[in-house]
Amino acid sequence: MTMTLDRRRFLSLTAAASTLPFAGRMARAATPFAFQASWINDAEFTGYFVAADKGYYTDEGLDLAYASGGPDVIPESTLIAGKADMTLTTPDTTIKAITEQGAPFKIIGAQYQKNPIGIVSLAKNPINSPKELIGKTLAVPPVNVISVEAMLKMNGIDRDKVNIVPYAYDPTPLIKGEIDASLDFTTNVPFTIEQAGEKATSFLLYDFGFTIFNDTVVVTEETLKAKRKEIVAFLKASAKGWTENFKDTTVYPPQFADSWFKGTGRSIENEVYFNTAQKPLMEAPGGIFSMSEEAIEANIKALAAVGIAAKREHFDTTVMEEVG
Fold first, then answer.
1. What is the CA radius of gyration of the chain?
2. For the structural domain made of 117-208, what CATH number should be given?
C-alpha cells in the first residue's frame, strides 16, 4: 500500500523490474495474464484473493499470475518491462510518466473512488477539518507535502499557519503527543493507534478538495489492444471477488491467515479493520473499478492543483463499459 512513490527513477528501473518474481500460477486456464499489485499482501487486495480462491479467474478463462508489491516495487515499471499486463498505482505517478516521459499508459479503472490518505489525530485532541490544523503540528511524508499544501490552499488556509514536519510512517510521535496529527492511511493507522491504547479520528483529503483516485488500474496502450478480452475478463472476475468480499468484511481475512496474509507480520484483526474501513471508499454507483465523468473531472482538477497536467484522454472508460 503506497501513498505515492517518487518516480524520478521510473524508466531507469525498468531493467531491474524484469527480475521481479511473480507468484506461482494460481489456476491453469487458456490464457496467461500477469497482475502486479501495488503493495504487500494485505486487506487492500482481499477481493483479488477471494476471486482467485473461488476460481473466478479460471471461470473467465484466465491463467493468472499474481505479484505482490512492496516499497521497492514501482508498478508502472513492470508494465514497461513486459513482466505484467496490468498494475495498480496512483493517478499522479501514472500521468506524470505519460506527460513527462511519454509512457504509453492508460488508466482504465479505479479501485478506490476516494483516496484513503487523510489527516489522523487522537480523539482526545481531535482535528476534524483543515481549518483546525491552523497552529498545529502536522507530520507529513515528504513526498506528500505538495498534496497537503494543495488541500490547504483549496480550503483557504495559509501554508505558514500549519507547522508541517517530516513523517516516517510511524504513529508513535502522535501517540506520545509530540505532534498533533499525521498524514496516513485512514483505513489502517487508526487500528494501530487503538492497539497502543488511544482512540483515533480522521478525515480524508478527498473530502476537502483533493479529489483523486487510488489504486488506479493501469495498462499500456499496446496491451489494451492486444489483450482487451483478457483485461475485461480480469476486471469482471475481480469485481465479482470484491462484491463477494463486501457481503461481510469479517469473513475472508481470517481465511487467508495461513495463505495470502501469512508472514506479513500483521494481525488478522488489523486486516478485518482495514477491509471494513475500505468498503465505503471503493463503492460507487457504477460498480467496483468504475470511473464516472464527474470523478474523472475531479481528479483532473485536483492533479492540476499539484502541477500535474492530467487530461481526459489519459482515462479510458470504454473497458469498464464492456465489463458492465
1. 19
2. 3.40.190.10
